[in-house]
Amino acid sequence: MAHARRFDDGAVRWVEVCYCPTPLEEEIPYWEEYFELLAIKNAHNPARCRDKNGTEPWACSDCDCTDRLEGWLERQGESFEAVLASDAERPTVVGGATRSSREDCESSNRESD
Length: 113
What we know:
Low-confidence stretches: 95-109
Largest sheet: 3 strands, antiparallel
Radius of gyration: 22 Å
Structural class: alpha+beta
Oligomer: single chain
Strand order of the largest sheet: 2-1-3
Number of helices: 4
Order of helices and strands: EEHHEHEEH
């Protein structure tokens, strides 16, 4: 997810190497807790995949087949990681007031007594 990109329409896209017979078979239950998965696609033609066609088991570990796609993706949208970090830095507004730390509340309460 460190290389995931967020697009203007709110969609998040990323490339992930997966060895499952069904792409992201093990990961889907986890990702579905956080995302509505609209599409899961092979990053390349499986017929040319040395792992999938049986010429080299586990070839994906050292394969650069996704480099072009990852390079293209890196130039799209904005870093999803940066979006999350930016959202985490924004104060949360509750009931029209900015939520502050417990110490701030306690200090404020002492001052008003």
